[in-house]
Amino acid sequence: MGILEKIKEIEDEMARTQKNKATEYHLGQLKAKLAKLRTELQAPPKESKGGGDGFEVQKYGDGRVALIGFPSVGKSTLLTVLTGTTSEVAAYEFTTLTCIPGIIHYNEAKIQLLDLPGIIEGAAEGKGRGRQVIAVCKSADLLLMVLDASKPHAHRKILTAELEAVGIRLNRRPPSIYFKKKKTGGMSFNATVPLTRMDEKLCQRILQEYKIHNAEVLFREDCDMDDLIDVIEGNRRYIKCLYVYNKIDVCSIEEVDAIARMPASIPCSASQQLNMDGLLERMWDMMALVRVYTKRVGGKPDFADPVVMSADRGGTTIDALCRQIHKTLIADFQYSLVWGTSSKHYPQRCGLTHPLEDEDVVQIVKQKVTTGGEEGKGRFKSTSTKGPARIADREKKAALKT
Ligand SMILES: Nc1nc2c(ncn2[C@@H]2O[C@H](COP(=O)(O)OP(=O)(O)OP(=O)(O)O)[C@@H](O)[C@H]2O)c(=O)[nH]1
Ligand SMILES: [K+]
Ligand SMILES: [Mg+2]
């Protein structure tokens, strides 16, 4: 029996099984079996390593956003309007057959937007170009799930289920469960909160399915069996998603109003260019990008060319800033001066762990290397010796004047 048949068999059995306290343990076991099969299904075929039929597009810019949706909802129209890059638009389904990249210029940042072929129910099991589309989605910082506002809202649920089936979790945090496999000692099961959907026996049954007999499990929130399976599998991707309800030009005001009130949802019309600014603003907010303007001693900040950082990728500390500017900068770092909403006073002298906020101005003060010019040497020069400290002091005073 192939993987797909096995999956079907388990899904059928789950559908037949009534949900109650008595069947809970059996259901947990079935869910674990299903998760294992789905992971097996996602594994790339052994023969082709980095094969050519994928949609690999080089990452570019300060963040990556992917357009996902059923055929003909207006993904390519959106790409064309937002980036100026033409992606073929037509009234028939499956117009787009590959991944088309474009660039959105917004708030002095460059955001890569990827147009993709439409996906259909069954994509998770490899229907259509589902596999390639999903691989691109997994590489995105934000998904725009494009929906036809005039069509049944159930489409959102179907697509979400497809993404769930391949281990993509939308707008969620990883479950707060500490899980560690051990060599011996059996299972230790603990919780810091009352558990209403999980107990020791259920946990044991699920672990057994994974042939894990020794482990430490600590629940820090009221999780269910799906959460536990996600943590055991360990391959889930937590991605932000904005639900873009397109084609509102054919909807009533009431419908548009209802969409605008739903969480993480935005109504728009790509072809009529309605609410494109609203869409960009929501995208920007959800990506949580932080722009930092760097300045030299005595110079003005470069407001046209910020360093753009992401809380989700790399972080937004001074340390992350230095690494992003140049890999050797950390070794030369002495302290930084920060002007902006993250600083208590103007400027504030900050170390590497200081978290920056959007539109902060930063000046990096490097250590003075007194001998030779070898990279990285500065790190080992103690700042407690009087020489460099005095130089730093002088530099600080100079910086404060600017
Ligand atoms: N009424 C209306 N039609 C739109 C809107 N946006 C796009 N369309 C139309 O919807 C049809 C499909 O648009 P595409 O941009 O090709 O859709 P797609 O999602 O890229 O389609 P595939 O690549 O085939 O998956 C075209 O006829 C567009 O003109 C909109 O805001 N309102
Ligand atoms: K189309
Ligand atoms: Mg298209």
UniProtKB/TrEMBL annotation:
Keywords: GTP-binding, Nucleotide-binding. GO terms for molecular function: GDP binding; GTP binding; GTPase activity. Residues 369-402 are annotated as: Disordered. It comes from the Eukaryota. Residues 63-288 form the OBG-type G domain. Residues 288-366 form the TGS domain. InterPro entries: Beta-grasp_dom_sf (IPR012675), DRG (IPR045001), G_OBG (IPR031167), GTP-bd (IPR006073), GTP-binding_2 (IPR031662), GTP1-OBG_CS (IPR006074), P-loop_NTPase (IPR027417), Small_GTP-bd (IPR005225). Residues 391-402 have a biased composition (Basic and acidic residues). The keyword Transferase does not apply. Signal peptide: none annotated. SUPFAM superfamilies: P-loop containing nucleoside triphosphate hydrolases, TGS-like. The keyword Nucleotide-binding applies. PROSITE patterns: G_OBG, GTP1_OBG, TGS. It holds the Pfam family MMR_HSR1. PANTHER family: DEVELOPMENTALLY-REGULATED GTP-BINDING PROTEIN 2. This is Developmentally-regulated GTP-binding protein 2.
